[in-house]
Structures are given as C-alpha cells and as structure tokens.
Design goal:
Layout lengths: L2 E2 L4 H11 L5 E6 L4 E4 L3 H4 L6 E3 L1 H8 L5 H12 L5 E9 L5 E12 L5 E10 H4 L9 E2 H10 L2 H4 L3 E7 L2 H7 L2 H19 L4 E4 L4 E6 L9 H19 L8 E7 L9 H15 L5 E3 L2 H22 L5 E10 L4 E13 L3 E3 L1 H11 L2 H22 L4 E6 L1 H6 L2 H12 L6 E6 L2 H4 L2 H12 L3 E7 L6 H5 L5 E4 L1 H6 L4 H16 L3 E4 L5 H8 L5 E2 L10 H7 L8
Parallel strand pairs: 1-6, 8-10, 12-13, 15-17, 17-18, 18-19, 19-20, 20-21, 21-22
Antiparallel strand pairs: 2-3, 2-7, 3-4, 5-6, 6-7, 9-11, 9-12, 10-11, 14-15, 14-22, 15-16
Bound molecules: ligand C2E and calcium ion (CA) (2 copies).
The site of one calcium ion has 4 residues, from loops.
Length: about 550
C-alpha cells in the first residue's frame, strides 16, 4: 500500500521550496483530478505549455516518446488498479525541438483512506545531465563546459581563456600497450592538470585524450596566462613521469584561445581551442599554440581548396594537367626525356602552385587517385612521343603517401600492361623525407621497385633527410641533387664542395646524377665542370604544356 495522507495541502509549499534545491524536476500527479504539477523549469525543455495542468494523463502521454508510451501506460494502470505502488522507470520524453531525451522518473504513490490511488509524487532527472561527470577521469564532461561557457557573463568573458591539452601520439600509447594503460594515462594527466590549475580554473574531459581548462575573471591577459598555465601543467606532468621512472613517457601539446569582445558566440571558442591544439601538433608537438584569426582563415581557405580539389577529382580530374620539363643528357648533349609536373587550375583559385596543392592532395589522400591519373597520363603521353622520338623517357613523381597508403606498384603494373609500356622508359622520382623513413613497408616497396627493374630516383637529395643507406643498398638508379645546392653553387664554396663530393660518391657507386634548378648560363658553365649525367632547369626550359613541348623540343636536334 502507498503512503496514506489526508491533509495534502501542506505539502504543496514544501514542493515549491524543494524544486529550487535540485536539478531534477519534481512532480505531483493527481489521479482523481487528472491534474499535474511539475517544476516550472520543465516547461523550458519539454513540450508543456504550463507547469500545472488538467487532463494530465493524456497531455503527458503526448509528451512521451511513442515507443515508450505503452510501458508508461501499463505502469500507471497497475498503480490505478492497485496492483503496484512502484513507479521507477527510465524512458524518453520529447523536448521542444522534437528530440527524445532520456529521463529517469521515480515516484511514490499516495492512496486515500479507501485505498484508491490519489497522488503520484516524485522526481524526474535527465540522464544526460546526470552524466555530466566523466567516468574515467572524474572530470566534468564537455556538456558541462558548454553550459558553463554559455553562462559566462560578458564582463568576465573579456578576461579569460580556454586551454585545450592533448597527449602527443596518444594513439601510440593505446596501440602499443592497451586501452587500460591509455585510460590510466588520462587519469594521471587529469590529476596533473587539476593539481596545476588549482582553484583558478575549471577542468573538463573532452573527447579522446583531450582535457580543457576554462579560466575566467582574470585581472589581465597581457602576460599570456594561458601559456603560463600550459607550462605549469607541463612541469607537473614531467615531474609525474619522472617519478614513475619514465616507464611511460609522453609529451603534451596545448591550444589556447582568449575570449575577446568581437566574438560573442561562446561555443565557437571550443572549436578555436581545438584548432589551436591541432596547429601545435602540426608544428611539432610538445608546445602550446594560441589561436590567431589569420591562421584560422588560412586553414579555412585550405579546407575550401581541398574541397575544390575533391570535386575536381570527382569531376574526372577537371583542371589537372601535366606539364613537361626537358631533361638534358650531358654526354649526348640532347634531350633525354622529360619530367611530368602536375598543374591544377581552378575557376575560383586560378592556377595554384604545386607547392600548395600537392600537400593538400597528400593530406586528404586524394594524391592516390590523382597519382594514378598522373602515371597513366604520363605513360600515354610518353608512348605517343616515342613514335616521333624512339626511346623517349618520362620521369614521374611519386608521393610518399602513394607508397605508404596505396598499392602503387600494382597501379604501375596495371598501367604498363595496359599500354604495353617498357619499364626502361620510365623513372619514378621519390622525394626523400622523414615520412618515408619509418617502417619496413617502405623498404619492401622500394625493393619491389628494384626487383621489377623499375628505375627510381631520389628527388631533392640533400634536403635534410638524406639517407645514405638507400644509396648504399643501391635501390636507386639516379640521384637528383636539390635545387638549393645548385642555386648556391656559384657563391658558396660549401655548396660547390657538397655537390662535387656527392656527384663523385654517386658515380663511384654507379649511380647517375641529375642537377635541378640550373637557371642561367653562368650556372650551367659552373655545374658542367662537375660532370653530372643530366641537367634540368629554366636555363633550358621551364616546364611547358605537352603541346609546347612537342612543338619546341620533341625530336629536335641540338636545341641547346
Ligand atoms: P620537384 O619534383 O623537385 O620538381 C622540380 C620543381 O622545380 C618543379 O616545380 C619545377 O618547375 C621547378 N624547377 C625546374 N627547373 C627550375 C629552375 O631552373 N629554377 C627554379 N627555381 N625551379 C625550377 P613545380 O612544378 O612547381 O613542382 C613542385 C613540386 O611539386 C615538385 O618538385 C614535386 O615535388 C611536386 N610535384 C609536381 N608534380 C607532381 C606529381 O605529379 N606528383 C607528385 N607526387 N608530386 C608532384
Ligand atoms: Ca621531381
Ligand atoms: Ca626536385
């Protein structure tokens, strides 16, 4: 039997007071009058016009998510029929925007002296709200941060910041160890941040490995307090790692944003902090970057360009074209072939430099389809030119992304088969980069180029990541010395000596050498003495369209 009361009125006053003390919604359902009274705040979230209404069961029924109505009705019927005094359900209500919201509803049945159900009195809590705390770190979750930012008043807004902290290479920790280690790393980081921040700010767990610090009401932001905070956190983290004897070493990056007057939608700050953190990671990790409008617009512009590139690729490689730059064979003093260089022209962005669009293609993985297109188009063109100039060769650039993330060898095989192309007439240029360095797979792929007698060149040799191992292991046929050395050769004894020594070293290993970036006659005279096998540069020709190449250079004797 439910609680029996005969004098109910005195409880109404208590109800009003209690409503103000909790995040939950309190309610009284009067079965006899079919009347409902609920905390006023509920009318802001759910579809009730008033917080106090008759025709209660039918109106409540309407507000319940359709799938859950039957369950609720059955429970109410059992209470009315005297079969149950239990009301403890989790189900969904529909909010003002029409979306379901999970609630937990618990109530006590109050019966009159005849045992008839008179009232159901209880509380309703939004489960989402209750879960404002993250289970792993014990920190508030992002929902709470969003509420807190919205609550922030304009005055304190001007002197505060968000600082988003992320663990560098967190994925590696998860992969190398396991999820538990990942989680406990996060827990420790959360403790470190809470310790470093103290009372001065609030801390929230964001998605993945990211933790947000929200600081407001500062006296001044002139001294970049966000950066100071980052440094403090870092030193606490370092200390902790040190104590643990470096068993699990990691670094952290930070992205900060100050609240400024011009921005008035608070939530955007979260995105800005996320953006700043991403920049910190791109710029090398283990650092804190502060949000700057200019960086952001550059980034947005890049995204737009990336989108345009995607559309161009989908649109049958619209706007992409291969230009060709002659490569001069020094021994025979003739054009030996050409390097295919990709160009992209777009209605909105105009002619975009490969230095800009190639990295965008690489970042988005679009370089894989585009690279395939390049291989096919260059081979097709080369075959056509071989009819006029037998033995004509083409050099094709291959990105490390193609090597690491696609089966570039099979793309090449397919193309050669399709055209009946002879492998000795093509050479693939691969730029030396740190990206190539890591992992077995690269080594394997380079070896399979070698096994198939596909000619390979190291492009931009000398630009920082040069790995003599590759040269030693003879996986390459040609070394293309980077333009920077050639540019410096006439003025810098050092550059001259480097080029000379590398050329001799390469020759002694039976490798061919190509100099790029030979621009002037003086350049040419100077480098000629060093006896490179091939030369490429504006001195002979800039990269030109295939039509121009055909007209000016193809099959022409003594063009230089
Ligand atoms: P890269 O492979 O080192 O190509 C040589 C670059 O030097 C070309 O720039 C060429 O126009 C330029 N160049 C040639 N001679 C001279 C000279 O005498 N002086 C100067 N200052 N520059 C000269 P471009 O065409 O702008 O290409 C830039 C880079 O974009 C290429 O550098 C290459 O890394 C990449 N790239 C171009 N086409 C492709 C492609 O089809 N696939 C891939 N993955 N990358 C490509
Ligand atoms: Ca190249
Ligand atoms: Ca190069």
């Amino acid at each position: 039997m439910g609680t029996n009361i005969d004098n109910f009125e005195k409880y109404i006053g208590v109800f009003e007071i209690l409503s103000k003390c909790t995040d939950d919604y309190l309610f009284i359902l009067d079965f006899i009058e079919d009347h409902y009274n609920i905390t006023k705040r509920a009318t802001e979230i759910f579809n009730f016009e008033q917080n106090d209404f008759y025709n209660a069961l039918s109106i409540i029924g309407e507000s319940v998510y359709p799938d859950d109505r039957e369950m609720l009705n059955n429970n109410i019927q059992d209470i009315i029929d005297g079969k149950s005094n239990e009301h403890d359900l989790e189900y969904r209500w529909i909010n003002k925007s029409g979306n379901p919201v999970w609630i937990s509803c618990r109530g006590q049945v109050v019966r009159d002296l005849d045992g008839r159900a008179r009232y159901l009195i209880g509380r309703i809590s939004e489960l989402g709200r209750k879960n404002k705390i993250d289970n792993i770190t014990g920190l508030y979750r992002e929902v709470r941060l969003r509420q807190d930012i919205l609550k922030m008043d304009r005055a304190s807004a001007k002197k505060g910041f968000l600082l988003l902290i992320g663990i560098d290479n967190f994925k590696d920790i998860n992969e190398r160890y396991n999820k538990e280690v990942g989680n406990s790393t996060l827990q420790v980081l959360a403790q470190c941040i809470t310790e470093a921040v103290g009372e001065s700010a609030s801390v929230y767990r964001m998605s993945g490995d990211e933790i947000m610090v929200f600081c407001k009401g500062l006296d001044s932001i002139l001294s970049d307090p966000a950066k100071e905070m980052y440094k403090k956190i870092r030193s606490v983290v370092d200390k902790k790692i040190n104590e643990k004897g470096y068993r699990l070493f990691y670094t952290i990056s930070g992205g900060s944003v100050y609240f400024t007057e011009e921005d008035n939608t608070g939530i955007q700050y979260i995105e800005k902090a996320e953006f700043a953190l991403r920049l910190a990671k791109i710029r090398g990790k283990n650092m804190c970057v502060c949000y700057e409008k200019l960086d952001y617009s550059e980034y947005v512009n890049k995204l737009k360009m990336q989108e345009a590139l995607r559309k161009a690729v989908e649109n049958n490689f619209e706007g992409f074209e291969l230009y060709y730059q002659p490569i001069v064979n020094m021994e025979k003093a003739c054009i030996h072939g050409a390097e295919a260089l990709l160009r992209w022209k777009n209605g909105k962005f105009g002619m975009v430099s490969p230095g800009i669009f190639i990295p965008l293609l690489e970042d988005s993985g679009l370089i894989i389809p585009v690279g395939r297109w390049v291989i096919e188009d260059a081979m097709r063109q080369c075959l056509e030119w071989q009819k006029i100039c037998p033995g004509f060769r083409v050099n094709i650039n291959i990105s490390f992304v193609q090597i690491k993330k696609s089966n570039v060898i099979s793309d090449i095989d397919l193309c050669m088969e399709k055209f009946g192309f002879d492998s000795k007439n093509v050479l693939f240029e691969i730029t030396e980069s740190g990206e190539l360095e890591t992992g077995y797979s690269t080594q394997n792929i380079l070896e399979s180029f070698h096994r198939r007698s596909l000619n390979l060149a190291i492009d931009d040799f000398g630009t920082g990541y040069s790995n003599l191992r590759y040269i030693k292991e003879m996986m390459f046929n040609l070394v293309k010395i980077d333009q920077a050395f050639i540019r410096g050769i006439r003025d810098s004894q050092y550059d001259y000596m480097v080029v000379k020594q590398f050329t001799e070293l390469a020759h002694s290993l039976n490798l061919k050498v190509c100099y790029e970036g030979v621009e002037t006659e003086e350049d040419f005279k100077c480098v000629r003495e060093l006896e490179p096998d091939y030369i490429q540069g504006y001195y002979f020709s800039r990269p030109v369209t295939s039509a121009e190449f055909e007209e000016k250079y193809l099959g022409k004797e003594n063009v230089f």
